[in-house]
Every structure is written in structure tokens, then in C-alpha cells.
Amino acid sequence: MLETLMAFPPATLLAFLAGALVLNLTPGSDVLFAIASGLQGGPKAGIAAGLGVGIGGIFHTCATAFGLAALVAAHPGTLDLVRWAGAAYLLWIAVKSWRAVVVPPESVGGALLPRDAFRRGVITNVLNPKVALFMLAYLPQFTDPAIGPLWQQMLILGGIVFTGGTLITMGYGASAGWLGTRLARRMGVLNKVAALLFGGLAARLALD
């Protein structure tokens, strides 16, 4: 694997890193999910959500490398099933968040446990077919059979994307948690805000 990494032309690797950085810095569904989790559960929950999203990304990287993503993309019915399952899961989280009891200021940060935020992050990312399609479209552009086994190249490139993305998403989640902890002392609507974000993500996934 290390030999394959060292075989990448520097120009190709730099172009890939630049694209991955722009992708990761642009707020998307993963970032919004981490922000909503941070608002609801505090900095630790936001960090855990970002980490969960990154772990879920490993699934998509492996699926792309070993051909599962291509198989799913070739069968629109399967892709639709995955998309609707993901939307239903996010909607379920939104309903739970909306109905959640507002915690007192001294207990802020405990409304959503980090382990629950982590689990939600993994499931949400795995059930998002847009991630699989993006990986399927983006990674092969930077591969070359002359460099080494294609599956190794895609694992390396996917690992780079999701390592950077995980760190950035965790940062967004932590920042939202820090802000939410302070806002919660003045207003009791953070669960409602989180619910609207989760609901919006569900609608976006279902309609795209």
C-alpha cells in the first residue's frame, strides 16, 4: 500500500488534495448533521457525530474500491431504497429531537449522548447514496493502472478524503456545541433547531 502511495505523481496527488480540501471545507449534509448534533448535545456530541460520519465514509471508500458502489449505481431501484431508508432515519431523528424535553441550563450538553451521536453519524453516512456516487465519480479520475492495483489507489485516495473531512466535520460539530452550550442558558429552542436541521437533511436526501 505504501509503495502504491509513493508511486502517485506529485502533480496528481496535489490536484487531488486541493479538490478534497475544497470539498471538505464546503458545508454539506455531513457538516449540517454534526452542527445539529453539537447544538443538541454539546461539543462532545458534535465531535462524536463528525467522527461517526468519518467512520461511515470508510464504508463508501471500501464499496467504491471493491465495486459495490458501481453495482448499486447500476440498479436504480436499490439506490432509491437506500436513499429513502436514509431519509426515513433522519426524519425519525428529527421527530425525536423535536419532542425532546428541554434540559435545564446546568445540564446543557447532555441532551444527546456522544455515543448516540456517533452511532447516528455512522448510520446516516452509510445510508446516504450520494456519498457512494460521489466517490464512484471522483476517485477513479485520479487513478492509473500503471501506478498499482486500482483498489489500493482508491482506498488511499478515499482515506485521504475522509481523514480530512472527519477532522473538519468534527471541528464544525465542536464549534456548534460550544455555541449551543452558551445559547441554551438564554433560550430553550436548541432541540427544535436541531430537529429542523435533521428534517431538512431528510427532505434534501429524499428529493435529490
Characterise the protein shown here.
- The protein is mainly alpha-helical.
- The chain contains 10 helices and no strands.
- It has helices at residues 2-7, 10-25, 29-41, 43-65, 68-73, 76-99, 114-126, 129-138, 150-183, 190-207.
- It is globular and about 55 Å long.
- The two termini are 36 Å apart.
- Mean pLDDT is 81; it is low at 105-109.
Summarize, please.
With 208 residues, this protein is mostly helical.
Q: pLDDT average, as an integer? A: 81
Compute the separation of the termini in Å.
36 Å
Radius of gyration: 18 Å
Order of helices and strands: HHHHHHHHHH
State the helical fraction: over 70%
Structural class: mainly alpha
Q: Which residues form runs of ≥5 with pLDDT under 50?
A: 105-109
Q: With helices defined by DSSP (H or I, 4 residues minimum), what is the helix count?
A: 10
* Residues in β-strands, percent: under 5%
Globally, the shape reads globular
Major β-sheet annotation: none
Strand element count: 0
